[in-house]
Amino acid sequence: METLLLWLFYISTLYAFIPGLITRIFGFRVFKHGSNEKQFALTFDDGPDPRYTPQLLDLLKRFGAKATFFVVGTNAEKYPELLKRMHEEGHLIGTHNYVHKTNWLMGPAAVKKQIQKTNKIIYDATGVRSHYYRPPWGIVNLFDFAGRGDTQIVLWSAMFSDWRVKVGANRLTERMMRKLRGGEIFLLHDCGATLGANSDAPREMLVALERVLQEAQRRGLQSIRIDEMIQETEAARQMKRKAKPVTKETEPGRKKPASISGFKRCIVALWLLWEKLFHFVFQLKVVDEHNPILHFREATYHGKPVAMTGGTSLEQGDRILELHLDNKTLFQYSTRARSSVQLAIQMIRAMEKSLPRLAEYVTAHPELNDVKALYGVTMINRGPEQFGFTVTDLPKGWFARSSHFYLKLLMSVVHPEGSSRLKQHTEEMVPKLIVMPIDYLISEFMDSGHRRHRLAKEQHAAAEEDEMALRTTLPCN
Question: Which H or E run includes 30?
């Protein structure tokens, strides 16, 4: 029963909750905001609609505004002439699934089929293939980040509840005016036939939109397509990177202690709240209350045999201590570190203290006599091997893919260089399985004198030689 609950917890959080949270907060692998101060984007979901879409196209044409339409396949199939008109008048057409159904309730194959089916409808009507996708309600699952080829997920930076007719044109105008500035992506709807929407709501939206377009024209703001906004945003980023001078502080591997915005601190707080819930549900124990870097729980190993140090092997059904890093401590270390090397050294010192304490805990609790090994999953290179862990590939499958996503996400939050680190070394960000026999833990780390001093010296030298030793300090989560 415990194993079933664990898998349900993993599946619900990794497949749905975490991807949704991260896309909304960090914009991970989605586009949700531009950079040009004089251009914004109008996007319309749920259409086409035979009553309101033609009125919207007339309005856009009158103001010379370009927009992006994320169409529902069932509607597009009924009104291909509206898709053809959108294309001929210079608008961009994206996909909003074949039916307006959340991706949280569909598997990867079903979502893929929804996108492909709608893309074919768009191609048949316009002769142009769609490369832009907005999931219904902006809700993504884990596999929306992979296997989509050249399809770009597009969210938004401003929405106005325009699907509710009671909001009214006046209030809607006020809301839209407050967000009318360069870089914004407006989420609007040209169809009110979906679940939770009002059929006459687009009528109020059209009235408000006309007023907004008049004001945009007065301010010199231009509405452009999403593909144009993405191109301009990427070009601006490249120019900024080229123009940035290289100084002592900006050299690779050197930086001031991280300056964390209040917004990111709020995000980290939410992340740590989720982790606290995980620790409570699965009753994780801490190795050292004064140095709470390492947590563990008793579990049963399920997987293929893994060879370990000393000639033994971990087999299906063996009892293990499953290791988890304390991400709060890791985040605190990262904010104080001036470089990846410094963070690596801090983590190495913490592990040097924790492993002897863990050995003491195991020997002091007879109920752990049947535990065979320590077990963890990590973004790894060589450090754990020097502590005595055996490092091996995770078996290919759903767990390996989800672990890869989760640990990359964790790295982008806690690493001193954030997501830029992942972009530089994305091919090296591969999760690994690490195991250590309990007998080896006790024999090597119960004597905390000479061995610890020798190990510390070796580890510190390794960190200074290879900055990438940081990934050795992420044993698990």
Answer: strand 30-31
Among 96, 100, 189, 415, the active-site one is 189
Find out whether 66 and 41 touch, Cβ atoms under 8 Å: no
From residue 223, give the alpha-carbon distance in Å to each of 141, 167, 189, 205, 237: 30, 24, 16, 16, 21
Tell me whether residue 33 is one of the annotated catalytic residues.
no
189 catalytically annotated: yes
- Separation of alpha carbons 313 and 395, rounded Å: 16
- Please name the residues in contact with 247: beta carbons below 8 A apart, sequence gap of 6 or more: none
Please tell us whether the domain made up of 24-242 is placed in CATH 3.20.20.370: yes
Per DSSP, the residues of 205-222 read HHHHHHHHHHHHHHHT-E
What is the phi-psi region of residue 13: left when phi exceeds 0, alpha when psi lies from -120 to 50, beta otherwise? alpha
| 427-464 pLDDT tens trace | 445 678 889 999 999 988 876 444 544 455 455 555 44
Write out pLDDT tens, residues 372-416: 999 988 765 556 777 888 888 877 765 666 665 655 665 555 554
Full strand arrangement of the beta sheet holding 294-300: 285-286, 294-300, 319-325, 371-379, 431-437, 390-393
